[in-house]
């Protein structure tokens, strides 16, 4: 995999693009889950219709 | 209605403690598998492009992100229309969820596009019609979300937010058609045509990117909607709690102003500082009802006698 990456042209741009996508979407997903856990403690279970 | 303070543990042991559910867990697993497949196909198995070389691999993120930015805009506009018709909280929450996802994806679109443009066009940014209109869409989405966060009465905020939400689809159409309406450095549509001008392996890699982005988008949308719903419910409960507190304060104040707690007509501090009939100091110094807020500071039973005193003085 490392050899393949090194052989790749524009490897830095590709790594930055894919890495940035993982960090951005993954970070957003983690933040959403944490917000959901924090908020769900303030709301009775009956108001969580997916439960 | 049950009033719950943030400190009160409310969830039963069986209740979920977040926005997840069995369905979203399955969906999340599928999304992760699709992301892994897209990464393998996009970074390893698919060949480099003849002209773009390996920078074409950025397209497997860039194009799906751009398309699902439009999807987020459509969701927001449709939900805004539905809110204007139905006026129910669910549509408002859905509109906000779609816009927030669209903003995340438009940022990703701009970032990956810039990274692709540097080796291909020789620049990270140019004031091209597609790029500029996409940047304007990002600004519009930011403004929309800022408007949602304004600390306004929901009855005043929601119609304004819904009307702004109506502008997102026209703006997305502007972005999408900009490469045809104006001379643009950006290439025209290649995969939305019936005969896509793209090689087989590259097309499969792009479709894997679309599949992964679609599953991730749906998973994020469901969770963001549930977070918005919890915010709405928590705000409603906070309001109920504040109203209950004010009612309790009112009852306590009424109980605390019973007649036996006053000091009587002679020394009461009823409306204003009127000292009652016996101690009236004449017109110049009378600070009777006209100079004091009624019943704001009065704790005695003096109001009834005080009014005639002032009348007598001014007469």
Question: Would you write up a description of this structure?
Answer:
- The complex is a heterodimer of chains A (51) and B (315).
- In chain A, 71% of the residues lie in helices and 0% in strands.
- With 51 residues, chain A is mainly alpha-helical.
- Chain A starts with a helix and ends in an 11-residue tail after the last helix.
- Chain B starts with 21 loop residues before the first helix and ends with a helix.
- Chain B is 65% helix and 0% strand.
- Chain B has two domains: 23-245, Up-down Bundle (Four Helix Bundle (Hemerythrin (Met), subunit A)), CATH 1.20.120; 263-314, no CATH class.
- The radius of gyration of chain B is 32 Å and the shape is elongated.
- The chains are: A mainly alpha (51), B mainly alpha (315).
- The A-B interface holds A 1, 4, 8-11, 13-14, 16-18, 20-21, 24-25, 28-29, 32-33, 35-37, 39-45, 47-51 and B 2, 4, 6, 9-12, 15-21, 24, 39, 42-44, 48, 53-55, 57-58, 61-62, 65, 104, 107-108, 111-112, 115-116, 118-119, 216, 219-220, 223-224, 226-227, 229-231, 233-234, 237.
* Sheet/helix structural class of chain B: mainly alpha
Level-2 CATH architecture of the largest domain in chain B: Up-down Bundle
- Overall morphology of chain A: rod-shaped
CATH topology term of the largest domain in chain B: Four Helix Bundle (Hemerythrin (Met), subunit A)
List low-pLDDT spans of chain B.
1-11, 260-315
**Total of DSSP H or I helical runs spanning 4+ residues of chain A:** 2
Helix % of chain B is 55-70%
Number of helical regions of chain B: 9
Q: What's the main sheet of chain B like?
A: none
Residue-averaged pLDDT of chain A: 85
Shape of chain B: elongated
Integer tally of domains of chain B: 2
Largest interface: A-B, 34 and 50 residues
């Amino acid at each position: 995999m490392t050899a393949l990456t090194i052989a790749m042209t524009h490897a830095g741009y590709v790594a930055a693009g894919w890495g940035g996508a993982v960090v951005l979407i993954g970070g957003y997903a983690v933040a959403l889950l944490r917000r959901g856990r924090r908020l769900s403690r303030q709301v009775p279970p009956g108001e969580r219709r997916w439960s | 209605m049950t009033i719950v303070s943030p400190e009160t543990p409310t969830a039963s042991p069986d209740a979920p403690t977040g926005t997840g559910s069995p369905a979203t867990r399955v969906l999340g697993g599928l999304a992760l598998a699709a992301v892994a497949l897209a990464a393998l196909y996009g970074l390893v198995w698919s060949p480099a492009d003849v002209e773009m070389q390996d920078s074409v691999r950025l397209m497997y993120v860039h194009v799906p992100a751009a398309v699902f930015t439009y999807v987020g805009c459509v969701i927001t506009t449709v939900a805004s229309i539905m809110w204007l018709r139905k006026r129910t909280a669910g549509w408002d929450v859905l509109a906000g969820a779609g816009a927030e996802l669209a903003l995340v994806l438009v940022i990703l679109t701009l970032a990956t596009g810039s990274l692709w443009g540097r080796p291909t066009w020789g620049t990270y940014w140019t004031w091209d019609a597609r790029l500029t209109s996409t940047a304007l869409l990002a600004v519009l989405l930011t403004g929309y979300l800022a408007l949602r966060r304004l600390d306004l009465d929901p009855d005043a905020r929601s119609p304004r937010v819904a009307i702004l939400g109506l502008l997102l689809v026209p703006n997305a159409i502007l972005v999408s058609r900009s490469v045809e309406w104006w001379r643009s450095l950006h290439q025209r549509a290649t995969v939305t045509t019936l005969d896509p001008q793209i090689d087989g392996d590259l097309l499969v890699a792009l479709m894997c990117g679309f599949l992964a982005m679609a599953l991730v988008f749906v998973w994020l949308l469901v969770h963001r909607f549930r977070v918005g719903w919890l915010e709405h419910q928590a705000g409603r409960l906070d309001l109920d709690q504040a109203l209950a507190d004010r009612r309790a304060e009112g009852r306590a104040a009424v109980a605390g102003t019973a007649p036996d707690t006053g000091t009587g007509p002679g020394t009461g501090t009823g409306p204003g500082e009127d000292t009652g009939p016996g101690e009236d100091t004449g017109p110049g110094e009378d600070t009777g009802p006209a100079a004091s807020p009624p019943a704001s500071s009065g704790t005695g039973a003096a109001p009834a006698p005080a009014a005639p005193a002032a009348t007598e003085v001014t007469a």
